[in-house]
Design brief:
It is globular, with a radius of gyration of 14 Å. The chain has no helices and twelve strands. The protein has one domain: Immunoglobulin-like, CATH 2.60.40. With 113 residues, the chain is an all-beta fold. The N and C termini lie far apart (37 Å). Helices cover 0% and strands 52% of the residues. The strands form three sheets. It has a five-stranded mixed beta sheet with strand order 5-1-12-7-8, with no helix packed on it. The chain has a five-stranded antiparallel beta sheet with strand order 4-6-11-10-9, with no helix packed on it. It comes from Ovis aries (Sheep).
Length: 113
Amino acid sequence: MTLVFTLMLEMLLFLTGAGAQSVTQPDDHITVSEGARLELKCNYSSSVSPYLSWYVQYPNQGLQLLLKYESGDNLVSGIKGFEAEFRRSEKSFRLRKIPAHWKDSAKYFCALS
């Protein structure tokens, strides 16, 4: 069985002193097979230490926080078997789940504050 994960990006812009913050996502949609590795990438731009979050929105439901990074350990554990890796050198925040399940088919949002 093939799963389709619909990705959308929540973009938050704040003026913080001399610079602005933003997030971008390279892919709009990905297809993942049942039991395979799910990985979504979020790139950010910020002149200050970022606070990053991943949210999920299942069909006919509101947004739900999966996990957030504030500081400290670069590997963040979330709910429902999700984890994310913060990579300061790449300015990225990668959401992962192994194995992916058909119930994971949803819209995923990356946020920066």
